[in-house]
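Researcher: Going back to the complex we discussed earlier. I've cleaned up the inputs and rechecked each line, so this should be the final set. Can you rerun the prediction on the complete assembly and write out the structure?
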Amino acid sequence: MSIVTVQLGQCGNQVGQELFDVISNDTHDAQRYKPSALGKAYHVCSQERFLHESITGELSARAVLIDMEPKVITQTMATAAKSGRWKYGDQSFFCQKQGSGNNWANGFCVHGPRHEEAVGELVRREVERCDRLAGILTLMSVAGGTGSGVGTYITQCLRDAYPHSFLLNQLTWPYGTGEVIVQNYNSVLTLSHLYQCSDAILVHENDTVHRICAQLMNIKHISFSDVNKVIAHQLGSVLQPAHTAHTHSQYSRNPMGELMAGLVCHPEYRLLSVCSVPQMPSSSLAYSTFTWPGLLKPLRQMLITSTKMEEGIDWQVRAPPVGQGAAQKLSGFNTSLANLLILRGKDVSSANACGFLDPALYCPWLPAGGAFSTWRSQLPFNRYEKSATLVSNSQSLLRPLDHMVGKAWNMFASRAYVHQYTKFGITEEDFLDSFTCLEQVISSYKHL
Amino acid sequence: MTQSIVVQVGQCGNQVGCRFWDLALREHAHVNKKGIYDEALSSFFRNVDTRRNDGEGSDIAGGKIRCLKARAVLIDMEEGVVNEILQGPLRDVFDSTQLITDVSGSGNNWAVGHKMYGSAYREQIVERLRKAAEHCDCLQCFFLIHSMGGGTGSGLGSCVLNLLEEEFPDVCRFVTAVYPSAEDDVITSPYNSVLAMQELTEHADCVLPVENQSLVDIVNKIKHMAHTGKPGSVIKKDSTVISGQGGVSKSEKPFDAMNNIVANLLLNLTSSARFEGSLNMDLNEITMNLVPFPRLHYLVSSLTPLYTLADVSIPTRRLDQMFTDAFSKDHQLIRADPKNSLYLACALMVRGNVQVSDLRRNIERLKPSLPFISWNQEGWKTGLCSVPPVGHSHSLLALANNTCVKPTFIDLKDRFMRLYKKKAHLHHYLHVEGMEQGCFTEALSSLSSLIEEYSQLDATKNLLVPDAPRMNIAT
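Model: Rerun complete. Updated structure for the full complex:
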């Protein structure tokens, strides 16, 4: 089954390029894996999922690049071509001359509708190239204008055009400060609209990823490319082939569907967060050995304390005894709705994940056992001998979301910047609707 | 890629504009070694085949540079400055279809510029603007450059601003306005400035005020530094913001040093839209992020570093110093103290070898000392452009929407009132057809209410504003 990726805006395009880079390198390495039958199967499955081969044998990403200005797309396509392993389709991009200027309304009300047809056509062509479509993955930021505004509009269109396909939105949340001043408005408008049409929203926070780069990857001068590489690593480890509970001998044929089925069991809860262990500079990899218990123990603690990084984990927090109501829950404890653990590497079958099965980790109203699933693959991912990635539908995004809405609401109270949006046809009522929607989401997660 | 058109009006506007074109050519020549007409060049220049004999040549897309023509319209109501440009080294980037001149000047009278020449030249100006716009395939921005004190710049300049709004409502209007110093030799400059201010407040998307005195101070500072002659503090000649070295103009005219500062302001402002970078900042993002209320669109700017030392071993401290300086009083292009006023929003446009972590570190470092309005405590917008200005390894343009512009406006209003109370020189204005005393009172009340709006925001400074009450969700 194949996944079609739609990259939107500067952030989405840059993340996408890194994602395909990770995947193509990982897939390439898999060919050297012994026993080679396993490596071959992995290679074939991954390739079918993300790339298609032209008659001349060139590999092109199953991706569509969309931006309202040409600079990033030109650069992204050139970088991809330079890799020598894969490229973007010569015709699979769409760009205009003038960006959306950080204005969600400009992207959503003007650029989106204007280019709906052209973009739809590009996606359709890419979809038709797939023997079977596993789903559509969109990559975008929520802060800017093109990614967030056009991205939201295009997601709505994709929902209409592919009502039965899985739609996963990967969103990059901006730094708390310093990227775009109206980012909280743009984020509120994006999230509230996506909540109505996307199947699941997978979030990466720039602040968290930046800390990972600084503290775990030991990068001194962190560039956006470093940040995007970490995001791509995490995404790749979720999306690369793995054995799931239902497919013991084969790689999962329906990765998106199984992801949704495992994690998004209630339409009110669609926010997913990701964390991976271990993450370290590639130069240290050769000198490090890992054991599965040594990876999974901190990962479990990261989950229940909502820490996204293997450093600074609070080991004091413990799961409360089962049977206590939400009111008695300890502060700092992160309740989950559902979790998906993806294990990749040596001796993966020996890894014991039962720490995640503890019913105390989950909200009480779901049947036990349905809330946790594990995917496994024997192949090392991205040169990590062993690695574990946890995708979690839990309260961990509650705090940043609450901050975001709070700041946007403060700004809205003095009606600052609102004229920039009404200019393009977004009314104050639209803002209020979006606020209401997200307050509802916040409240739901709060009371898990 | 989008294009922008520069409209330069009056003596000051044309002199600044002239410096801009020289430095823009210098910058592109520095980046574009192969002489190919690229996207970056196309934002301010056309590539024209002059052998075609239809008057103005035809545009060539891509390929070798043939003959570059500035996307500019030059307007002056006297001939001196424009003629000088046409005889100078920059003559080839303009042609006669881009010029509008008269002979008699506006006599430092806003009314003559705005009302008289405004109506007389209306058609001609619109025609020139349309022609310039037709050469663009995606016109994003007009940069209007004029002074506030004189007659042509302030009068006709603000009239052009209205025409731009009428004819091109969707194209962004940036105004670079040069404000007169307190000891300006034009006696009617307070009248002209206040009358022009009303137009800027109502019709511009964004105004970058620049004060003559601040430019003089910066020039003196650099010259002083250059003449100390201490070893280890030798300044790279082409790197100062006042230098035109490396450009086509060989001789330096009196105001060139000052005008180069303004030219550099415009270059850095547009760099991220022209060149690539890891965090692009397009021109329309500037107003989107920095203008929370439509009338409060006056942005205080500062350029750092003012120069680069010839010593190449630059410690990172210099990089942090660049950020610190951008917020100091003596680097602002108007006389204002942003640190001790209230920020509504702030943008950092960085060029050159600077990473996002450098940006973040400096924002974190500087934030505690800078007062921001309660609802925009995180009011930072950043851009990273990978191409540094000529002579530098990195540079920073800080744009602040800050209540520190208020003293300049109050000062202007006071000087206006001193004349207006005695009705001094008023008859010169009221002579002009279409000019009434109502224009003065209207302009005055527009300025007063602008000052009042800034004061109201200022009053919230240091107040502990509680979070706005949120919506409650019944569970």
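Model: Worth noting: The mean pLDDT of chain B is 90.
Researcher: Good, that matches what I expected from the previous run.
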